[in-house]
Design a protein that fits this description.
about 30% helix, 2 helices, about 70 residues, Translation Initiation Factor IF3, globular, alpha+beta, four-stranded mixed β-sheet
Length: about 70
């Protein structure tokens, strides 16, 4: 299961808060792909994953848009 969450235009902490809410409905192991434009999103999501027990799979950047992939932990 993979879901994409559009948080483009939102500033910290809103992208992480929206991702946290979206992950509630995901089973463990499911992927969440977050699209963000906030430059701080990369480090915010890395910290969020560490704290919440999720896997920070990776991040790609293209034309100012960060595409962050998270795997939900148990």
């Amino acid at each position: 299961m993979t879901r994409t969450l559009d948080t483009k235009g939102l500033k910290c902490p809103l992208p992480v808060l929206r991702a946290k809410k979206a992950l509630r409905d995901h089973p463990p192991g499911a992927l969440l792909v977050v699209e963000a434009t906030d430059a701080a999103a990369r480090r915010d999501f890395e910290a969020f994953c560490r704290e919440a027990g999720h896997d920070f799979v990776g991040v790609e950047e293209s034309a100012g848009i960060l595409t962050i992939t998270i795997r939900k932990g148990a």
